[in-house]
Amino acid sequence: MSDTIAFTLNDRPVEATGISPAMTLLDWLRGPARLTGTKEGCAEGDCGACTVVFERLSSSGARICEPVNACLVMMGQVHGCAVRTVEGLRGRDGAPHPVQIALAEGDGTQCGYCTPGIVMSMYAFVAGGEPPEPTLLHDALAGNLCRCTGYRPIVDAMARVAGHAADAAPPPAAGSVTGNAVLMHGATRFDVPATMAGLLALRRDHPDAWLLAGGTDLGLLVSHDRQIPARVVHVARVPELQALVLEHGRLRIGAAVTYARLLPFLEGPLAPFGAMVRRLGSRQIRALGTIGGNIGTASPIGDTLPVLLALDASVRLRSAARGARLVGIDDFFTGYRKTVLAPDEIIEAVDFEVPLHGDIFQVDKVSKRRDQDISTVLGAYLLRVEGGIVRTVRLAFGGMAATPARALRVETALLGQAWTEATIERAAAMLGEDFQPLDDWRGSAAFRLTVAGNLLRRLYMRASRPDLVVEIDQL
Amino acid sequence: MSGADPDTARGTAKGGVHSPQRHDSALKHTTGEAIYIDDMPEPAGLLHAALVLSPVAHGRLRSLDLAAVRSAEGVAAAVTAADIPGPNDIAPVGRDEPLFAETLVEYAGQPVAAVAATSLDLARAAAKRAVPDIEPLPPILTIDAALEKGSLLAPPSVLARGNVGQAMASAPHRLSNSFRVGGQEHFYLEGQVALAVPGEDGDLVIHSSTQHPTEVQHVAARVLCLPYNRVTVSVRRMGGAFGGKESNASWVAAVAALLAWRSGRPVKLRLPRADDMVATGKRHGFLYRYEVGFDDDGRVLALDATLAANGGHSVDLTPGVLTRALTHVDNAYWIPHIRCTGFACKTNTVSNTAFRGFGGPQGVMLMEDAISRIAHALGKTPEDVRAANFYGEGSNDETPYGQKVEDNLIRRCVAQAARDAAWDQRRAEIDAFNRASPVVKRGLGMFPLKFGISFNIPSMNQAGALVHVYSDGSIRLNHGGTEMGQGLFVKVAQIVAEVFQVDLDRVRITPTSTAEVPNTSPTAASTGSDLNGWAAFAAANTIRQRMAAFAASHFDVPEDAIAFRDNHVQVARPGDNRTMPFGELARLCHQSRVSLSSTGFYKTPGLHWDAAAMKGRPFFYFSFGAAVAEVAIDTLTGESRVLRVDLVQDCGRSLNPAVDRGQIEGAFAQGLGWLTCEELWWDGEGRLRTAGPSTYKIPGSRDMPPVFNVRMLEDAPARAATIFRSKAIGEPPLLLATAVWTALKDAIASVAGHSVPVILDAPATPERILMVVQGLRNRSGELPSS
Ligand SMILES: Cc1cc2nc3c(=O)[nH]c(=O)nc-3n(C[C@H](O)[C@H](O)[C@H](O)COP(=O)(O)OP(=O)(O)OC[C@H]3O[C@@H](n4cnc5c(N)ncnc54)[C@H](O)[C@@H]3O)c2cc1C
Ligand code: FES
Ligand code: FES
What we know:
The complex is a heterodimer. By secondary structure, chain A is an alpha+beta fold. In chain A, 28% of the residues lie in helices and 23% in strands. Chain A has two domains: 5-167, Beta-grasp domain (Ubiquitin-like (UB roll), Roll); 241-464, CO dehydrogenase flavoprotein, C-terminal domain (Enolase-like, domain 1), CATH 3.30.390. In chain A, strands 2-1-5-3-4 form a five-stranded mixed sheet. In chain A, strands 10-11-16-12-13 form a five-stranded antiparallel sheet. In chain A, a hairpin with a 2-residue loop joins strand 18 and strand 19. Among the domains of chain B are: 26-34 and 462-603, Aldehyde Oxidoreductase, domain 4 (2-Layer Sandwich), CATH 3.30.365; 405-455 and 619-786, Aldehyde Oxidoreductase, domain 4, CATH 3.30.365.10. In chain B, helix 6 crosses helix 7. The radius of gyration of chain B is 27 Å and the shape is globular. Classes of the chains: A alpha+beta, B alpha+beta. At the A-B interface, helix 3, helix 4, helix 5, helix 6 and helix 17 of A face helix 1, helix 3, strand 27, strand 28 and helix 17 of B. The structure holds flavin-adenine dinucleotide and FE2/S2 (inorganic) cluster (FES) (2 copies). One FE2/S2 (inorganic) cluster sits between chains A (109-115, 146-149) and B (189, 240, 485).
């Protein structure tokens, strides 16, 4: 047990003591560390002003730089990591980093408050060696809001330095923690088990502890709601939860696999899933957020959940007392943010069969803003049409009910029917029987129903008229 | 103004006017070294403050129990209305706005108390322990309800000319319509913050993120019952403001000041984003109703319009916003007979306030709507109808409030934008695309701009500056303008460098302070560089003249033979090329007891305004522009994208083209957000449910048009006596985003082959667009089939 949080900050080893492991990294930087370059714009993970970069070496020794929202990260999560802030970008000669120069010289700052966060997102982008394609530039900026510039000069500056600055900063010091860690201070105890057995025992003994994966949902309780948890159990260092395996046509995703790690696996037949995940949060969110966390939150607007429903996934749960059990995703959600997860259980993994060639698999996300927005409606569909007849069909929606849910009556109206416009129209008309959505700030019930019906029409159009432009992004 | 010739031939001094200079803090911004108020080293004994906000939109505050707050860990002070030594009034103009609600709460989010504790977390935790006892009253939450109940903040204001009734009755065609536009959250990235530090005898120094240091000074002094000379307000920079830190910064600072006075310790109040969004005012949402009479050519003969603004619970700056809206209804169009009635609706929502454009953006939407409907009614293009109505040059050039439109650049801007956008060609392409595309539709929209520059209240159009030249030739510049990211500081420094013909980096920019330049106006209404630029010019020029006089005697030549050039003073006479570095001159001036410090003052000439009659010359000049936007909409989901814009903006002869381009792009982006994705959503009890960036969506980088062409109109020096022939730039380009709204309507109309006119309320969210599309489809019986 220790009250020392050890990590690497801007290439130097740091031991933070006398602070709560549930304090946010942002509060620590701006407070005790007096590093005020990193800004708070929202304390809810949405503005990016607090962006810092986590650096690590991949198994092959390559440096990986991931932007994260310092406002969502608890200090306990930082233990053993290498963090870079805007203060740590200068070269050994003291000169500003090329991204800093490019942004300044390109008139990419006005009030400057978003700027340090933008600089860090740029730095991570450049370090990743990505080409300056507009899609990627916007991906890399989706987690950073700027209210002054209109972004053009930022995007231009980023394009100019892309691929140029990878060697400007020294590689991270190898700071890695092995074995269980227990961090304690004040009212909070923060456990970082390194084994499944350790995790399950903690879960059994402390069912009320916060089970923390990436913290992009739970972190809001600290950052935004200013709650102080008594006990946190951080699941992310248990190897089994990090498994990511594609085998015999099934993809198994450990619960603590982040979206960033998952994305390369969502290609080929799973590309529609991948395209949606690229719109889930931002790079900052995807660097921390996990699929297990999305399932654990069980929100009716959790974006992966309708996809998992369409793919007929199964969720593997595990407890110390009863070992593993598999629950079909259809049976997993029991009510608004309620699931079958027992108090002593954890989510270990989720797995599903990858759609076959010829299957129709699509995912549509509709939100007020293209990037970094919560879905108003999300639709995911998996169909097999053979000989013009719908042979199998699973249609799932988010934002339409208290849980992510399949449109069972619509499915029935499609199953075994001819795959025609008339069938789709008939089926779409059943949506109102499957769902009675709510009115809220993301959309009225009428809008949600109309959109969901239209998404079914789009589904058919995409399959039947591949020549048509059916999305504004295609322009 | 004499002395420095504005158009001195360029010497070698770097960074004078008209050159593209980077923001003075650009590199500091990127390294994180630029210091904002929350970054300042914290004074010993600092307390952190938090607000207690009303959970109820309207109700009688029967009691407020702070016992649990006061006994909470770390709490040093807790204050309510009862603890205010002076008047409980923070109104910027009127006298009706309490700092803390006393007996009546009038909106959900209204401050009722504040607490200061030894840490921010303790302060926020303590604030949650307050127990207000509020007897709820029925709230008025919408413009419609306010109009119905006659709930107004001020009597209606009327801007009228001619005989509307008669002209309307005799017009060959008439039509009417109603639509609405929502408000807008400023979403400055740096939230409201103030740090109040008590000094000797209870004097106060307040570091406030404010556009209006003088008002912070006045409001803090008012609530503490102090003369103004006891309160000093200072601000180096803001992390964005956009009008949101005009009157709202004052009450935030007043809370910090009150708690500092109460506790005798420094107090910092920094609002968490959610408090900031529920407790501080926003752009006014508007409801429009109008009837327009026109002839066969589409010429508007009469306009009878009602504009109702949601003012929120108190007056704040609403009358000014409404006046600017009314004086911008005409926009680029000459309307012979007009009556515009403005209602300042009082509702139980946060009091709306200044926001970049200050009612202008709302005002101009009305005629754009009318134009498109007239075009539809006559089977003409909106472009033809616009052209038929533009202000004339020499005739048909008087605005409804009596000011003539001089130096009219409307037609020039519109023609330029149409050319840049290849309008005719793309119009045809888009129509062809739409005929072949059942789902995705494209639209093209145009918007011409005329925007009046000056505060509508003449007395506000004044500014002061203070310039020192030190004996080493370094220069210190101070003025009443504030830096919120708009590049004001660098522009004014350029002016001073220009006057002395020295390098820009010789001019040191310093924080705005009520101790250096008193009695200032807010940095607002796009007037920052016009007013402060002239004031700094005057200060610098006074010193320059003294230095020139000294140099003349030193070189023993007449004064007119002295020139400032290339960081030197020189004798400019054939055969005599004696010269001396500027620093050496400063040293010698000091030796010879020449004063090297001067204030400067400026007031905009020729302004007058009769607020009751709504007549006069409120504007020093007009700024012009035009925009063409192309959008695409998805008729299945209502999602939209801006594909391309071509903006033309009149900047006069730009003081700093780099900064001005940034203002144009940034303002456009903000206007785009207002009209498309930014939606404020209150629930049935009047609670704002979009109180954070997770629910309130400002544009992101991908929302910007992939083709984003910006042109500053060339060869268009301002003719009025503006500073170095430049024009204001802060607000006008925001209005250019109106072209996106007209383009969206065009795209939507194509769904029904342009056979049905489109009513599109803003913000044009996917929901609004889809519902309008769906309505058209139902009417025209057309389905999005393949
Ligand atoms: C700015 C922002 C944007 C976002 N955008 C999106 C979006 O577009 N779409 C979307 O769907 N979500 C979005 N989210 C929500 C969030 O990122 C996702 O739900 C994410 O998947 C949560 O993962 P996490 O690892 O961060 O979860 P955590 O916050 O660590 O945990 C979330 C919940 O899951 C539980 N949990 C975590 N791991 C396990 C486990 N192994 N076993 C049992 N329970 C577990 C936790 O106890 C907790 O209840 C966003 C969040 C933010 C802050
Ligand atoms: S402060 Fe806004 S994302 Fe962290
Ligand atoms: S520069 Fe002000 S928010 Fe980006």
